[in-house]
Design goal:
alpha+beta, Rossmann fold, 2 domains, six-stranded antiparallel beta sheet, 5 helices, 6 strands, about 25% strand
């Protein structure tokens, strides 16, 4: 997926933003409170149907506004242009996919291949390994990188 356009209206500190990311890596800079994280949060909302910062009622809709609106255009894995819209009023979500009402928020999210690293996600890599039986990090930290590259499953040192 390649995001080609993102319009944001009334999300947190952002009143109205139109973002056209270039292919490849895009660097987003700005001072504290400028809306950098809110821009990433908009993409996350479209891809997951929820915020990574907490409950929707906790300031997601810009103060004094009746709703928030997101619109995105992207190229899917086959290079086909796609578009989606999402409106949230504080109680209800309205989603559109390629110009038609989306049957559900889940279906909209399934069409967007979004991966975001949320606050705290880095703990999967930088955190102290948990070696408990149900721990993903505990199991992964014991595998030898060379055996992983070769497709083997040989425990490492």
């Amino acid at each position: 997926m390649q995001l080609t356009r993102l319009d944001i209206r009334r999300l947190r500190c952002l009143e109205q933003v139109e973002f056209h990311p270039a292919p490849g890596l895009n660097l987003i800079t700005g001072g504290n409170g400028a809306g950098k994280t809110s821009l990433i949060e908009a993409v996350h909302l479209l891809g997951y149907g929820r915020s990574f910062r907490g409950r929707v009622r906790d300031g997601l809709i810009r103060s004094g506004s009746p709703n928030l609106e997101l619109y995105a255009e992207w190229l899917d894995g086959r290079g086909r242009p796609r578009r989606a819209g999402l409106r949230h009023t504080g109680g209800d979500w309205e989603a559109r996919l390629d110009g038609a009402p989306a049957p559900s928020l889940t279906e909209l999210c399934a069409e967007l291949a979004v991966v975001t690293f949320e606050p705290g996600s880095h703990e999967l890599i930088a955190g102290v390994p948990n070696t408990g039986a149900g721990s993903w990090t505990g199991r992964c930290s014991t595998w030898n990188r060379a055996s992983c590259r070769s497709g083997g499953a040989t425990p490492g040192p």
